[in-house]
Task: structure prediction
Amino acid sequence: MKTSDFDYCLPQELIAQTPVEPRDCSRLMVLDRSDGSLEHRRFFEIGDYLRHGDVLVFNDSRVIPARLWGRKSEGGGKLEILLLRRLEPGVWQVLLRPGKRAKVGSRIDLTASPTDGDKQDSRVWAEVIGLEEDGIKLIRLSDETMLTVLGQAPLPPYIHAPLNDPERYQTVYARVPGSVAAPTAGLHFTPELIRQIENKGVICQFVTLHVGLDTFRPIREDNPLQHTMYQEHGVLNPEVAGQLSRAKADGRRVICVGTTAVRLVEAVAQASDPLQLQPFAGTVSLFILPGYQFRMVDALITNFHLPRSTLLMLVSAFTGSSLLKEAYQEAIQHKYHFYSFGDAMLII
Result:
């Protein structure tokens, strides 16, 4: 297995730049693994494929204003900060650009925008206090309460159009702040659609996995087995654990909304008996590749993912690589939109 096995060519015009309105009017490709068949639908029709007793697992993590700007106190060089993970009050793992400008001990005065900036005596500042692998640095913020004022949602680098409503990069059920990217499969749901699904007898459950660096970090190694996954914090509470275990015992389907929900549920299932799933709160670094044996997940709702990404590898593991390649080529031929604001797949 090589990383290049998960490559494909995508016309630039198929990278979605803006979200579809209403949310549930995006296109939906339905892929049946049992016979390889494909159907082309709209997302609001997804209830046609859900059954009474299915358990639908959503990730309720909320995107934080993780993109910040600043200037070095000494020299005034501009810096962009991407918050990755909060380790303790005031202390964060971050990416800095350009990273070479910030050594341990450097102070960065935060500004409200990349162009705001001649004030060298900012009321909010960050100090670089450590260096980690892969260019990750540790900083200490003087005042975390100002993040909502100074920070912005960190849209992926392939989105160039401005986002007029920041809430459009949040799911309608986003509740627990902590992600640096949205769990995008959930962006297609509206409150009305969730109510319709629940009225069919589908059980909607919520877990939390804060999306981290691997969502947008490409795999650099030729052999994906040499790639190390970034740790993400996750929580699966006792009620959800019980619902999932009862579903498996009864032979009912567990359907995950997005690859993040898959990774959390599968990581918890690895650590305990799927029929007696235990609650969980801790870090998750599960890397799912073709050959992985799924313990909990029976169906998956997901978007179309970047080439050579861990997300594409997970979906390949779930569908089979050849079937997924056929589905992606079909999506390109039918001009589906790809990535965060793009269209969706239901894999059953």
User: Anything to note?
Assistant: Helices lie at 147-150, 191-199, 238-250, 259-271, 310-319, 321-333. The chain has a mean pLDDT of 93. The radius of gyration is 21 Å.
